Amino acid sequence: MANFNRFISIVLRLEGGYQNLTADTGNYNSLGQNVGTNKGISAKVYETWLGYPPSVSDMKAITDQIAISIYKANYWDKIKGDQINNEEVATIIADHAVNAGVYSAGKITQQTLNERFNLRLSVDGIIGNQTVSAINSVNQYKLFDGILSNRERFYKNLNQPKFLQGWLNRLKPFYEDLINLSSKYGKKASYGLFFLGIVGFSLYMINKQKNDRKSNKQQSNNS
């Protein structure tokens, strides 16, 4: 069975800390106030959790433990993560639920299952027992490959160039999972995406190393 701890370690790393960009609609509470997002928890998500519109100080006070509780209840449990056998598949579905909503994650998963495996699931965005059973019954590499490809297409179709590169950057760590899954389940998905996955992950690691060196250099200059 998939492990929630693996998912949460990845999503907290991807989300980062507090930000209050004015162009990010997720930063506004129901009063129209820009109070920001923290650890990937948007203002309205936290408002639902608290039961009242959060302030800037409320958002900044979100701890890792609070974020973990929200991610478990609002996303992991909603996609039935504990019932999905493969950790990589459960993680990429749950991550899309965080980034684009549970409905969108369910819809992309169902569309992928229908497209790649000729199933006839209802594309209602709800990951119920039938969808979970389908997820667990198919080739996991081919499914993961399809979800990754469909997530990229989803972001591009939103036609929001200001945020597109950030969304695509979010997918880069998942190329490593794609490569790992290929050795377990065989290369039955699109070879083009597999090749792009290798290139994308390589570029991601190169950029990460450059950023790490830059960060270390800055720390040395400041000390």
UniProtKB/TrEMBL annotation:
Source domain of life: Bacteria
Residue ranges occupied by any Peptidoglycan binding domain in the UniProt entry: 107-171
Keyword Phosphoprotein set for record: no
Keyword Transmembrane tagged: yes
Pfam family, one: PG_binding_3
Domain TtsA-like Glycoside hydrolase family, residue spans: 10-101
Residue stretches spanning the membrane: 189-207
Record's keyword terms, sorted: Membrane, Transmembrane, Transmembrane helix
Stretches of the chain forming a coiled coil according to its record: none
InterPro entries noted in UniProt: Lysozyme-like_dom_sf, Peptidoglycan-bd_3, TtsA-like_GH18_dom
CDD domains registered for this protein in UniProt: N-acetylmuramidase_GH108
Protein name: Uncharacterized protein
